[in-house]
Task: structure prediction
Amino acid sequence: MNALQLTPLQRLQRRTYEILDGAVADSKSKACEIFIAVLVVANVLAIILESVHELHEAYEHYFHYFDLVSVMVFSVEFVLRVWSCGMKYDPAPGSAWQGRKEYVFSPFGLVDFFSTVPFYLQLIFP
Result:
């Protein structure tokens, strides 16, 4: 199916896939890639800094809010990746689920999933 035959929602889905997957080398893909990489590094630094007792005591609320925002960003990214991977293959019966299944069970998909699940489990089981 070419780009002219896609519905507006399918075009949005394909563009989301291109940006998140880096399938197209453009400024939006690069900016998204850099943003996610910087956020990952910032999370690692926050974990390291939070392990210092004095910093944890002094900035506990900031660490909490940063963690909350980060988990929300990573959750939205995961959901958008799962949704948009439906456009990885040309439309055919089952192809959308094939793309989604490939992402979810890929090393990147598993890391994305298991990095956010503890936050939600903590909400369910305090």
About this structure: DSSP finds five helices and no strands in the chain. Residues 53-84 form the longest helix (32 residues).
